[in-house]
């Protein structure tokens, strides 16, 4: 049996679906809490096309792949197990949650964390997808510094495009908004754009142009070409949350219109007990550091949840009619010092500890 098959056959405290910054941070927290945790990951992190990760303290500029390699090593050093696989189905079972993989194998965990991120829906303009994450960018905080002072175009895609244009203006005086037959500024917005010296181009964008893999500009439908160093687009952000549908959880539309996500409760909890979410699947705006922080919080919440369950089990056992402590109490009351295993002489003047004395001992040790 391969090590992966062995991992999958074991029952785990937690199954994490998604091995990006959110899932791996949860795995580190859970591993350090001495929990058995398996991370299932399809290996397609959202920022894969980007050259470097920016804004993640102490790792500035690290490549997305190197960050995840280091995160996996951290998680594995605390016993977390990692399986490269796509989860295709989740269902509730007596022990918790069963997750079925694309190849038909499965794994069971007492708790489930979904950290599958989101998919960026890109406008269907020829040439745009090829430049995604390189010359075509979306987030000023991820890419703005690298394109500061350059000629930046903003592709009109929806209600947030003017906001996005005004943000990119912080990084450059040379910003052009392409209305793309999608954005219709109000009088107030025309004034605002003019006040910030933002050029506005009417008409649909027909292509995103490049030479030798480098973005050179865009061409609008009438054939006019505009030279650019970078093009910003607002993507439609769709949480990869469909796996939770059989459990009764579905992504909800974001009020801004920028996409949909699973709405989380405190510390990544959800309306379904035992199911948690972290990162972009439940927070469309989360950058890497935020996704990682949410994973850490969800990991802590899951551990607390498991501790509560195990404490309840212990208490049931402690108080139950056939528990060892209960049997010993009954025996003490019925047989006193004649009960099995005790010698009369040894207990004279030193009665065996009652339940309440034992409780005090436990407290003083704790
Ligand atoms: C081009 C680009 C550049 C960016 N640059 C930056 C930047 O510089 N700084 C920054 O802070 N943020 C940046 N971001 C944002 C960053 O990508 C996200 O903040 C981060 O990826 C969120 O982490 P996550 O763990 O939620 O999701 P992800 O990183 O997307 O990880 C999710 C993981 O789950 C896996 N998965 C999904 N479905 C399944 C399934 N069914 N079964 C198994 N595994 C599954 C995926 O394959 C993936 O590996 C950038 C985004 C883009 C698009």
Folded structure, characterized:
By secondary structure, the protein is an alpha/beta fold. The chain folds into two domains: 3-120 and 237-312, FAD/NAD(P)-binding domain (3-Layer(bba) Sandwich), CATH 3.50.50; 123-234, FAD/NAD(P)-binding domain (3-Layer(bba) Sandwich). 31% of the residues lie in helices and 24% in strands. The chain has ten helices and 19 strands. The protein has helices at 3-9, 21-32, 64-77, 140-143, 161-168, 187-195, 288-319, 324-335, 344-347, 355-365, and strands at 11-17, 37-41, 81-84, 87-93, 96-101, 106-114, 118-121, 136-137, 152-155, 175-178, 199-201, 205-211, 214-220, 225-227, 230-233, 236-239, 252-253, 259-261, 275-277. The strands form four sheets. Strands 1, 2, 3, 4, 5, 6 and 19 form a seven-stranded mixed sheet that branches. A five-stranded parallel sheet has the order 8-15-9-10-11, with helices on one face. A hairpin with a 2-residue loop joins strand 12 (205-211) and strand 13 (214-220). Helix 2 runs parallel beside helix 3 (64-77) and helix 2 runs parallel beside helix 7. The longest helix has 32 residues, at 288-319. The radius of gyration is 28 Å and the shape is elongated. Flavin-adenine dinucleotide (FAD) binds next to helix 2, strand 2 and helix 7. Residues 17-23, 40-47, 49-50, 53-56, 86-87, 115-117, 120, 133, 142, 240, 243, 279-280, 286-289, 291 line the site of flavin-adenine dinucleotide (FAD).
